[in-house]
Specification:
- InterPro entries: AAA+_ATPase, ABC_transporter-like_ATP-bd, ABC_transporter-like_CS, ABC_transpr_LolD-like, MacB-like_ATP-bd, P-loop_NTPase.
- Keywords: ATP-binding, Nucleotide-binding, Transport.
- This is Peptide ABC transporter ATP-binding protein.
- There is one protein chain.
- It contains six helices and ten strands, in the order βββαββαβαααβαβββ.
- By secondary structure, it is α/β, with parallel strands linked by helices.
- The strands form two sheets. It has a six-stranded mixed beta sheet with strand order 6-7-8-3-9-10.
- Helix 3 crosses helix 4, helix 3 packs parallel to helix 5 and helix 4 crosses helix 5.
- About 40% of the residues are buried.
């Protein structure tokens, strides 16, 4: 199967004054098209840094990032922004919904930013609201009126609305109880199976791994091992 993401000898070093902190060390990773991968490790292991580099929010100090067979490591910010809008959806631990917008408006926002015409936006938002179970009837509510699980489903709908190639999820179940968290991961599995979208999820919760195709264990900024899920 074709690789949608390749990381080649990726290193990331942060500098503060005379101090250096090595966040990633010689990371090599291939993610196949339509695969569901979990990045697993304790806090501070490098999971979020790795997601940010995959998602073109940060650049490696050394090494290469390849997206859809294109080396994107040293692109300018404008080109990276265009690629993010086209290929990548994000789901965050804290949902990152805008409190004064309705569910519909939160989901629509990436399309507004991308300049999609209103009629086309309406069609795309309606479609994704009906794809994610349990949120269509909430479309006129605001985030403060929703449970944590409902807010995360809205965040997933927002990540899906521009029909990305890849969804990156950073600790998406960390603020949820175990049953709601499992329901969110089940939803990712459905999205992967039915829509063919590649999903890379960072988590420290081993309860959330049953639906993943492969598990990448990260410690001290290095890939410790990679396991295929049985």
């Amino acid at each position: 199967m074709k690789n949608v993401i390749q990381l080649l000898d990726v290193n990331k070093v942060y500098k503060t004054g005379n101090n250096e902190w090595v966040a990633l060390r010689d990371v090599n990773l291939n993610v196949e098209d339509g695969e569901f991968i979990a990045l697993v490790g304790p806090s501070g292991s490098g999971k979020t840094t790795l997601l940010n580099i995959i998602g073109l929010m940060d650049s490696p100090t050394r090494g290469h990032v390849v997206l859809e067979d294109k080396d994107v490591t040293y692109l300018g910010e404008k080109e990276k922004s265009e690629l993010r809008n086209k290929y990548i959806g994000y789901v965050f631990q804290s949902y990152n919904l805008i409190s004064f917008l309705t569910v519909y408006q939160n989901v629509e926002l990436p399309l507004v930013i991308a300049g999609v015409p209103e009629k086309e936006r309406q069609k795309m938002v309606e479609e994704v609201l009906q794809t994610i179970p349990g949120i269509y009837e909430l479309r006129n509510k605001r985030p403060t009126q929703l449970s944590g699980g409902q807010q995360q489903r809205v965040a997933i709908a927002r990540a899906l609305v521009n029909r990305p190639k890849v969804i990156l999820a950073d600790e998406p179940t960390a603020n949820l109880d175990i049953n709601t968290g499992k329901a969110v991961v089940d939803l990712f599995k459905k999205i992967k199976d039915e829509l063919g979208i590649t999903i890379v999820m960072a988590t420290h919760d081993l309860e959330m791994l049953k639906n993943c195709d492969r598990i990448v264990y990260i410690r001290d900024g290095m890939v410790e091992r990679i396991e295929k899920n049985s």
